[in-house]
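User: quick one
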Amino acid sequence: GQSLEQPSEVTAVEGAIVQINCTYQTSGFYGLSWYQQHDGGAPTFLSYNALDGLEETGRFSSFLSRSDSYGYLLLQELQMKDSASYFCAVRDNYGQNFVFGPGTRLSVLP
Amino acid sequence: DSGVTQTPKHLITATGQRVTLRCSPRSGDLSVYWYQQSLDQGLQFLIQYYNGEERAKGNILERFSAQQFPDLHSELNLSSLELGDSALYFCASSTGPTSTDTQYFGPGTRLTVL
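Assistant: Done. Structure below.
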């Protein structure tokens, strides 16, 4: 089967750096995506890694290690508006199924 | 605003009934995805259509069906509704058919089955 694991909650203060980890077990692998979802809102795409290494987009970076079946989302210079749930997702079964992790709830404190 | 529209925003119905959820993708996007989000199951991929054809299938129940029309809007039909079908249903769209394409999510339809 397929499964993804993420920490359920993370708390950090404004201006800090936080890392949200994701480990996955899937049959076939077509890249790791990250989504942000504010309470009551829709998920919004943050990043996608198909190859090993770090992808940087502004304050957010995402990392993938396919050999370790592991990735992380790094959020820098945290702002209050970053308080949200963050989901990792993979496409497996040779492109037939998207699987989302359970989500990590990030709370940014003043 | 992602450019993806979903109607209705809220839907309240009874067990055993059938409902249709509608999604209009962003202008120019050919792929439409349907997701179900509930408290106990998280975000679950249901099905993807690309340019009118079924592209990928996830954990979609047999009681559920979808289609994408020539104008690229999509409908998700849920029948013989059960209490457990109460959830947020999201539609997303992307330009192409693959996982490298960014998906843009609509605001969702909240379905309550009583």
